[in-house]
Design goal:
single chain; 296 residues; Protocatechuate 4,5-dioxygenase, Chain B; alpha/beta; two-stranded antiparallel sheet
Length: 296
């Protein structure tokens, strides 16, 4: 059967994609950030998954304010990079995995989580920037991402947004769905967005290093408590856009040490942790966890 072997957590700052696309990664401002992903790119080459479930938020490209699903899963065979106002990013088309995506949708809905099924959508920087960070720069025509990707979009833009606890529980339901898929697949689940940042208002530019790193400690070591963090704490401590961090809890909840909302199995192995500020007035966090039973 299919298995989730690892989770990846990373910010998806749009300026990171622009820096890669415009050849600025070696500039002094950007070098420290991209150095933090050197391990990750090599790890991806050494441990290629068969499928990635990539949790992200759409930024008004696939969904407008006319219709905003709380949770949406892409079931299409392919996804074009979105035009976010300055042309699509020069990256390869994202290939999907309709069979596994449809199976996850069926299983998760039967576990009482309402998903919107999306058979056609473009994907924006929320999905393509994490792929670029982990896989490197690829030719948009001749290149290809290393495996199919299942987009899993979460509304963290228009309130009300889902709680961290709801996201954490959803991650457990996704793992159950994956493990009931009758094909031998090595699956990664990625949680993206965050960390602390605010893009508007009197606190625009807010970054909270101490809170970010304390939250990362808890995500890794005590995700049950982390899932209980109230929304107001994210807003107060990490800024209005810091709420994107609830998406990381979906990926953490999908790890094998979490069962029925409790930590019952061996803790995952921490392979890599990185934190950097600033990246276009945003804090960047990055973690790779590997399920213990899959550690060589």
């Amino acid at each position: 059967m299919a298995k989730i072997t690892a989770s990846v957590f990373t910010s998806h700052v749009p300026a990171i994609g622009a820096a890669m696309d415009l050849g600025k990664t070696k500039e002094d401002y950007w070098k420290p950030l991209f150095a933090g992903y050197d391990f990750s790119k090599q790890w991806m080459k050494d441990n290629p998954p068969d499928v990635i479930i990539l949790v992200f938020n759409d930024h008004a490209t696939a969904f407008s304010l006319d219709m905003i699903p709380t949770f949406a899963i892409g079931t299409a065979p392919a996804y074009q990079p979105a035009d976010e106002g300055w042309g699509p990013r020069p990256v390869p088309v994202v290939k999907g995995h309709p069979e596994l995506a449809s199976h996850i949708a069926h299983s998760v809905i039967q576990q009482d989580f309402d998903l919107t099924i999306v058979n056609k959508m473009d994907v924006d920087h929320g999905l393509t920037v994490p792929l670029s960070l982990m896989c490197g720069e690829l030719d948009p025509v001749k290149g290809a991402w290393p495996c199919p990707v299942i987009p899993f979009a979460v509304n963290v833009v228009q309130y009300p947004v889902p709680s961290g606890q709801r996201c954490f529980n959803l991650g457990q339901a996704i793992r159950k769905a994956v493990e009931s898929f009758d094909e031998d697949l090595n699956v990664h689940i990625w949680g993206t967005g965050g960390m602390s940042h605010q893009l508007q208002g009197a606190r625009a530019g807010l970054i909270n290093r101490e809170w970010d790193n304390a939250w990362l400690d808890q995500l890794i070591n005590d995700p049950v408590a982390c899932a209980q963090t109230p929304h107001i704490n994210y807003v107060r401590e990490a800024g209005s856009e810091g709420i994107e961090l609830v998406m990381w809890l979906i990926a953490r909840g999908a790890m094998s040490d979490v069962n029925d909302g409790k930590l019952t199995g061996p803790a995952p192995k921490l392979l890599h942790r990185f934190y950097h500020v600033p990246a276009s007035n945003t804090a960047v966090g990055h973690v790779i966890l590997e399920n213990s039973q899959f550690t060589v």
